[in-house]
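Suppose you are handed only these lines of text.
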Amino acid sequence: MPATEVTALDRHECKACGYVYEPAKGSSNVPAGTAFTDLPQKWRCPVCGAPSSQFVNIGSVENPSGFEENRGYGFGVNTLTAQQKNLLIFGGLALGFLFFISLYGLN
Ligand SMILES: [Zn+2]
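From them, the structure of the protein bound to zinc ion can be written out as follows.
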């Protein structure tokens, strides 16, 4: 995922009043999905009226690419582990059952 899309999701906090501009939600007179860097130069904090230069980048709510990578990675590992567990469990049960039957047969 391009870095520009991650940057577009970055939230910005007003240093004057603590208002947080979230690109996903937009703001007054700003449609949702507008990156902070795409805000009009005249845009000001809707709470205290501070100019956009008074806002600091506090990062995105979540990193979409990283989140997707982690979820896919974890899901794959969990599936593999479950399969391995099933193999071990049922394989062990089968071996134990055969072992038990063989002992039973000997006796
Ligand atoms: Zn403010």
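What can we learn from it? Confidence is low (pLDDT under 50) at residues 1-6, 64-72. The helical segments are 3-8, 64-106.
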